[in-house]
């Protein structure tokens, strides 16, 4: 398996120029958010907790009023195989960008597998309605540009809840415009088609999570904190591709010569915040300025 | 699509008799597989559970799942450092309250199960290991499989689960942040009170919605 230069590499290069100014704006916005949120306490990775909680309840309100009812109707009206087909089509449309991210992270074999998936499902799977590739041993991967930045060593930064998009870290929020620009649905030129497809995709995604609502309400003392901690741990897991370091401590024991996981996570989080504030943001800007290093 | 699905379904069913053959001291992976298969088999046939009958699914979890969990260790991991400062009486109440909370979560999740395929990944384990992770995957069409990993420890009464990691997130240590906040605000008794109140609010009909 050699890392031959693919047409994808060129595609990225040509789109990079367009991205530069956008990325810089996001970074600046991110820094403003950081400065604005200095006054809170609690979790070291959540300095914006006050703002985040407000945005979290705003999103919950939108969900309750619009998205969840739509998802419930969608689930009630369409039979399961049809919904599976719809999910497969959107999943298939996402595979080229997943392949690109795998390539950017140096995981050439996974990238090739994703391209194969796309080809197989688009042709034999009737434009992606059938996910034949999964059954043929080409599993679906989960990658995005935020994970790629993480793999490159960019720190997570503070936790931030975006309007409509929901939980992100600062790093992932900065990566979001890249994901959207490369998104096959979002980049459709015909605006009504784009909007309709985006709405259907959102409704479909939400319908998959309907079963979790009750659990989430019943299992948590504080939904905001539970969702936040879940998101942060899951992002780490994804950046580590499913192999994050995990240590179980024993609080019955007398000696505590090992650093408990909670403490080391706190330290990690603090370092990550500092790193992004001081270095990570700088790196991001540099990255936007010199796309030459990419191919 | 339907045909492919039923193929998998048949394959999965074929595993069940294989799995429940041996009964003696079970290796951790065998234990997880047996319990999973047995419970899911019941859920799949029980229309009441599928319709969300909580009492029924509680009973099932009580009988088949609880005996294989070490809730004391789980509670300790969720509480974190402050566990050492709790009196034995406080520890007991914490374990009870957290167990109730977790059992409800798990039971709810079970009522959502339909016929997804669960795959059991091979376990890397040596005879000397006292802690083992058994990894499983819930496969679903068009999406990345969801990992459900069980961490077990060896005790005199066999292997006991003390952590469940879903999609990379420990359902136990994910509570540590909120528990820590509760303890900072109202001490260990404050946490006990919050947990017990939460449990009580869900016993009443309006809590169950």
Task: Briefly characterize the structure.
Chain A is mainly alpha-helical. Helices cover 66% and strands 3% of the residues of chain A.
Order of helices and strands of chain A: HHHHHHEEHHHHH
Helix content of chain B: 55-70%
Count structural domains of chain B: 1
Question: What name is given to the CATH topology of chain B?
Answer: Nuclear Transport Factor 2, Chain: A
Radius of gyration of chain B: 18 Å
CATH architecture of chain B: Roll
Task: Give the number of helices of chain B.
Answer: 8
CATH class division of chain B: Alpha Beta
Number of strands of chain B: 5
Silhouette of chain A: globular
Q: What's the total count of β strands of chain A?
A: 2
Protein name (chain B): ABC transporter substrate-binding protein
Organism (chain B): Parazoarcus communis SWub3 = DSM 12120
Pfam families (chain B): MlaC (PF05494)
Signal peptide (chain B): 1-21
Describe this structure in words.
The complex is a heterodimer of chains A (295) and B (209). Chain A is mostly helical and 295 residues long. In chain A, 66% of the residues lie in helices and 3% in strands. Chain A has 11 helices and 2 strands. A 5-stranded antiparallel β-sheet of chain B has the order 1-2-3-4-5. Chain B is globular. In chain B, 29% of the residues are buried. Chains A and B meet through α3, α9, α10 and α11 of A and α5, α6, β4, β5 and α7 of B.
Q: Which key terms come to mind for this protein?
A:
heterodimer; A: 295 residues; mainly alpha; two-stranded antiparallel ribbon; 11 helices; 3% strand; globular; disordered N terminus; disordered C terminus; B: 209 residues; alpha+beta; Nuclear Transport Factor 2, Chain: A; five-stranded antiparallel sheet; 8 helices; signal (chain B); MlaC/ttg2D (chain B); ABC transporter substrate-binding protein (chain B)
């Amino acid at each position: 398996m050699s890392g031959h230069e693919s047409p994808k590499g060129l595609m990225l290069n040509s789109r990079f120029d367009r991205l530069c100014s956008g990325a810089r704006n996001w970074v600046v916005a991110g820094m403003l958010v950081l400065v604005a949120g200095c006054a809170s306490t609690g979790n070291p990775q959540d300095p914006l907790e006050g703002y985040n909680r407000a945005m979290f309840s705003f999103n919950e309100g939108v969900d309750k009023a619009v998205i969840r009812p739509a998802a419930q109707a969608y689930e009630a009206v369409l039979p399961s195989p049809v919904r599976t087909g719809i999910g497969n089509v959107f999943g298939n449309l996402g595979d080229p960008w997943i392949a690109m991210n795998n390539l950017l992270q140096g995981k050439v074999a996974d990238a090739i597998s994703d391209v194969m998936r796309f080809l197989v499902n688009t042709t034999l799977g009737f434009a992606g309605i059938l996910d034949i590739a999964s059954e043929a041993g080409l599993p679906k991967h989960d990658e995005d540009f935020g994970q790629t930045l993480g793999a490159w060593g960019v720190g997570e930064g503070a936790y931030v809840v975006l309007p409509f998009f929901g939980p992100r870290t600062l790093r992932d929020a900065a990566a979001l415009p890249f994901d959207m620009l490369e998104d096959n649905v979002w980049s459709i030129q015909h605006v009504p088609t784009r909007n309709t497809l985006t709405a259907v995709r959102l409704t479909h995604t939400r319908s998959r999570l309907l079963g979790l609502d009750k659990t989430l309400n019943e299992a948590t003392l504080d939904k905001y904190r539970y969702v936040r901690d879940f998101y942060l741990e899951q992002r780490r897991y994804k950046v580590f591709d499913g192999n994050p370091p995990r240590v179980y401590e024993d609080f019955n024991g007398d000696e505590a010569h090992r650093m408990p996981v909670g403490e080391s996570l706190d330290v990690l989080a603090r370092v990550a915040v500092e790193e992004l504030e001081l270095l990570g943001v700088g790196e991001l800007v540099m990255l936007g300025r010199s796309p030459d290093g990419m191919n | 699509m339907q045909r492919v699905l039923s193929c998998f379904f048949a394959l999965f069913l074929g595993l069940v008799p294989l799995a429940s053959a041996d009964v003696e001291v079970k290796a951790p992976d065998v234990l997880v597989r047996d319990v999973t298969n047995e419970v899911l088999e019941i859920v799949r046939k029980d229309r009441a559970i599928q319709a969300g009958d909580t009492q029924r699914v509680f009973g099932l979890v009580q009988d088949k799942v609880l005996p294989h969990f070490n809730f004391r260790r789980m509670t300790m991991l969720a509480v974190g450092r402050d566990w050492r400062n709790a009196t034995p009486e406080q520890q007991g109440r914490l374990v009870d309250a957290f167990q109730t909370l977790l059992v409800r979560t798990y039971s709810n999740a079970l009522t959502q199960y339909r016929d997804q395929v669960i795959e059991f990944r091979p376990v890397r384990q040596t005879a000397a290991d006292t802690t083992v992770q058994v990894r499983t995957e819930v496969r679903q069409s068009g999406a990345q499989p969801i990992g459900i990993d069980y961490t077990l420890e060896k005790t005199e009464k066999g292997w006991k689960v003390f952590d469940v990691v879903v999609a990379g997130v420990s359902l136990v240590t994910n509570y540590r942040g909120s528990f820590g906040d509760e303890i900072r605000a109202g001490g260990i008794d404050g946490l006990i009170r919050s947990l017990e109140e939460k449990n009580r609010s869900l016993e009443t009909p309006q809590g169950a919605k």
